[in-house]
Amino acid sequence: xxxxxxxxxxHALGMLQGGMRTAxxxxxxxxxxxxxxxxxxxxxxxxxxxxHPRSGRPCVTTLAQDRYxxxxxxxxxxxxxxxxxxxxxxxxxxxxxxxxxRNRLTEAQLGVCGPVVRQVLTRHHQQKRCLWAQxxxxxxxxxxxxxxxxxxxxxCLTRGDGWIHVNCRRNEHYTEAxxxxxxxxxxxxxxxxxxxxxxxxxxxxxxxxxxxxxxRYREDILLPQVVLFxxxxxxxxxxxxxxxxxxxxxxxxxxxxxxxxxxPWPAKSPDLNPIEHVWDLxxxxxxxxxxxxxxxRELAGDLVEEWGNISVLLTLEHVERPxxxxxxxxxxxxxxxxxx
Length: 340
Hints:
Elements: H1 6-17, H2 22-28, H3 33-46, H4 63-75, H5 81-87, H6 98-107, H7 123-136, H8 141-145, E1 147-156, E2 190-197, E3 206-208, H9 214-231, E4 237-239, H10 244-247, H11 249-257, H12 275-287, H13 296-317, H14 325-334, H15 336-339
Helix pairs in contact: 1-3, 2-3, 5-6, 9-11, 12-13
Pfam families: DDE_3, HTH_28
Organism: Oncorhynchus mykiss
Protein name: Tc1-like transposase DDE domain-containing protein
């Protein structure tokens, strides 16, 4: 039976001192008669209604063992709690449980989180990235505004929207109201698109049918989109990553023949292309449409439409988005500390 709160104890003691019967008091505060009798006897012996002090459950680890647990997991971040419990016998019990180790780690403010996955970088990659950062560390926002940032992105028709929380009671995890249908690998079809974002006058959004190879990249994207776009703006530079279709010899020769300046991009560089923010905004706007797309054709149409809406909106506002230019300026100017 739950413990009687302190205010009800004082109330029960007042009713007893007022002459009420023990059974009536127990019925009034919704507890057992034995509880009221124990309360009455405790007040008679100690003059108070609070419980006797309790020692609590004895700790199974010593202070030295707590330091050992904390130090072991600080030295090896991937160490499992079960491993530490197996090699650290308890003070009262030779077999310590893993939950005890987790409790000590929580008391030491060592939380649990997933590791951040990063690229495998050789010394050559680090030197190239450091040299690139040194070359562009003094670029101003005006310099970054003269770069045409381009990239491809894949949009799935059905895809999970990150972490989704559901509030449920015990044993209700698998009820229909608490489950969500979804395809693990983004089934239902997908659309790959290409786009470019300078400060203003965005390029058109190109829907790519099938795989993108060097020939299709040259004939379907560079020739009708990039070359015509940069010929009207001779002071701009093209930026694209180091995928095979972008770094092929035929593509490099094609850009040289058209006098297209290309921004060097280090191999395995951190994905700092500001167009990634635009892809995220485009994805959220498509998902927020009143009638969601039901097939690949509708998805492609919604992407093109929302792309135009975003470009017109940002052009009318004439906003220098910090996530595009100031973000690059700050990140690349401070990246030297990472590689040196």
